[in-house]
Amino acid sequence: MSNLILSVLMLAGAALLIGGIYVLRKGVNKRQGLLMLVAAAVMFGNVWIGSIPIAQNNQPVAEQSGN
Question: Is the N or C terminus of the chain more exposed, i.e. has fewer CB atoms within 10 Å?
């Protein structure tokens, strides 16, 4: 499930990046274009953070049975 979410975030980030560049080059609404680029950067940052591997020995400790 995590891979699906990261994939959708990458596609949405790419769409925002392309759309932001298009709006900036068109020159109609520069603020909207900049906000789209910022949103794309946030999405790419989330994908980067979400793809960092986690060590397997960092799992919660299981309860020990009574002695």
Answer: C
